[in-house]
Specification:
By secondary structure, the chain is mainly alpha-helical. The protein has one domain. It is about 75% helix and about 0% strand. It is built from 20 helices and no strands. α2 runs parallel beside α8 (about 135-150) and α5 runs antiparallel to α7. The longest helix has 29 residues, at about 250-280.
């Protein structure tokens, strides 16, 4: 009897959402898993957690058919990135594969990519088996909310909000733009949970998630990341507008929408008052900084065009950047560990074909998601992914492993939700 109960619990996947949420949050707390020690450790943990989840999937499950096409494309991109560097020297020379300036970083970078692809598959399998996106969404929002509340209870963010701190608030992640992105994603997920639970009239749970929502928004402003705050604000407005239109079309939800509009408005006004003095003056430098970002993109674009087919090798960016410093770029670029544009860095390291294969895999998932009747939880997941994606175009976000891992889990949740075919039969 006990073995049967354990087997049913194992196959039921109720243990998987808290495990994934705890894994991501621990990686965020451990410096974003963005140093020489925690980066490979996080990759190993991601592979182990995802492997444990995928091992619990029954061989006859339709999920294996569902994940087949994107998985093939993701694996092809990984092979394209890694195989040229594992070829014999004579073969690589004949194929005009450039030497990797950081060969010691090849295997850790590939392991990190494998771990993130595994998280996409695992999150898809969990959501598909549970037949609902809400369990993982709620656990991710709750875990991120606990982290945000623990940060806001320290005096450090308040010093930056008051203008007495040196630099900008980066929490335990170490990079303020990545920290702002994470807090923005957490706030967006909390809003999606609040609106989703409001639709089913779960009052006390709705009120509970207001606390981490406010905390995450205040901390996002404390990081003074313009891209993170702008994208977060846009995502939250999009979610609220879409939800309000849905509520207006259902007479039973109109009163709920009216009750929600006032607290959300008060939250926005209060957060703007608390953090406006720290963040808003930075928008004055936006025109100058935009030119600087464009200069960064054009510089690394030219580097990628020197080896567009094969790239320079996974994990090679820092060494390549150091080797190519010139008098015109040394003063600004000498400390860069990322290209401030995630797709461009993938093309620079793995080649443009690898980027196209990854993009094709994501596009397959996107087409599948676009065909569904979206609930507010789907809009929240898309909004959170949009915050990370937008920030990764101009700042450091996906380059931090913890942010990349969270984005992969959200992509998997979107992919696995509301299956097009009938779900698995227990």
């Amino acid at each position: 009897m006990a073995q049967t109960a354990i087997a049913l619990y194992w196959r039921g996947f109720r243990w998987a959402p808290p495990l994934l949420a705890a894994t991501i949050t621990l990686e965020v707390a451990a410096g974003g898993s963005n140093d020489w020690a925690t980066r490979p450790a996080a990759a190993l943990v991601n592979v182990l957690v995802a492997g444990m989840i995928l091992l619990a999937v029954e061989p006859s499950s339709r999920i294996w058919v569902r994940i087949r096409a994107p998985l093939i494309l993701f694996c092809a991109a990984l092979l394209w990135a890694g195989l040229p560097r594992l070829m014999p020297i004579g073969v690589a020379t004949a194929l005009d594969v450039p030497a990797n300036p950081a060969p010691d970083r090849l295997m850790p970078a590939l392991a990190e990519a494998i771990g993130q692809v595994s998280l996409v598959m695992a999150a898809c399998a969990v959501t598909y088996r549970l037949r609902d996106v809400r369990p993982l969404l709620s656990w991710l929002a709750a875990a991120g909310g606990c982290y945000a509340v623990s940060m806001i209870l320290t005096p450090l963010p308040w010093q930056f909000l008051a203008g007495t701190g040196q630099g900008r608030f980066a929490a335990t992640i170490g990079n303020w733009n990545a920290a702002g992105t994470y807090f923005g994603m957490t706030a967006t997920l909390c809003l999606a949970v609040i609106l989703g639970r409001t639709e089913v009239h779960r009052g006390w749970l709705t009120r509970l998630f207001w606390v981490p929502l406010i905390a995450a928004l205040v901390l996002c402003m404390a990081t003074q990341s313009r891209s993170a705050f702008t994208l977060t604000f846009a995502a939250m407005i999009m979610i609220a507008v879409i939800w309000q239109r849905r509520a207006a079309s259902h007479s039973g939800c109109t009163r709920q929408a009216a009750k929600f509009a006032l607290p959300l408005g008060l939250v926005i006004i209060g957060v703007a008052y608390v953090g406006g003095e720290a963040l808003f003056p930075r928008y004055r430098a936006l025109p100058i900084d935009s030119l600087s970002r464009w200069d960064i993109i054009t510089t690394y674009w030219s580097y990628s065009m020197d080896s567009p087919l094969w790239g320079w090798g996974p994990g090679s960016f820092f060494e390549l950047n150091q080797a190519r410093l010139a008098p015109a770029t040394a003063l600004r670029f000498w400390s860069f560990g990322a290209a401030h544009n995630a797709p461009l860095q993938i093309a620079l390291e793995a080649g443009w074909p690898a980027l196209l294969m990854l993009s094709a895999g994501v596009a397959v998932i996107g087409v599948n998601v676009a065909r569904r009747a979206w609930r507010v939880e789907y809009i929240g997941l898309i909004g959170a992914l949009g915050v990370a994606a937008g920030a990764s175009m101009v700042d450091i976000a996906w380059n931090v492993p913890a942010i990349g891992a969270l984005s992969c889990v959200l992509l998997g949740v979107l992919w696995g939700g509301r299956p097009a075919r009938s779900p698995d039969v227990s």
